[in-house]
Amino acid sequence: MLMLGGIFDLGRSVVGVSHHRCVCLAALLVVATFSGCGEQPVAAPKAAPEQDNSLEAEIAEMIGKLDEADQKLALEQKFCAVQIHERLGSMGVPAKLELDGQTVFLCCEGCEKSAKSDPEKTLARVAELKAANTTTN
Ligand SMILES: [Zn+2]
Questions:
Q1: Would you say 129 and 87 are in contact if contact means Cβ atoms under 8 Å apart?
Q2: Could you read off the pLDDT of 2-13 as tens digits, one per residue?
């Protein structure tokens, strides 16, 4: 019983030592992490802007296929009335749609159904898009 207690005490002191070492190791790790900060790889250069230019060229070409009056409207709207992050002309000639007597443009014919399903929402989006476009210019 006495011996068992001694072993237990010994074990506790060993645990205590190893715990202390752990703290030291952790401190070392923190130092190592900090010193490693200077070795971060240099950020890779971003992709050449050529792709953007070709997209702009394609958009201009597609919008250019519309009637002159429609071109003006499409340029004012700039983005699809349904997929508002999709540029008009980025998916071919923009699809033209009449909603409540107003001409709206869509990035593709696939958006027509959604545009017609909620004309008010679509027209509100067009108004927003045009407002955003005119304030930034
Ligand atoms: Zn579309």
A1: no
A2: 555 555 555 454
Neighbours of 126 (CB within 10 A): 24
SS3 of 37-73: the string is HHHCCCCCCCCCCHHHHHHHHHHHHHHCCCCHHHHHH
CA of 125 to the centre of ligand 1 (A): 14
Span from the CA of 135 to the centroid of ligand 1 (angstroms):
24
What distance in angstroms lies between residue 129's CA and the mean position of ligand 1's atoms? 15
DSSP class of residue 108?
S
- How many angstroms does the Cα of residue 104 sit away from the middle of ligand 1? 12
Name which residue leads in pLDDT, 131 or 33: 131
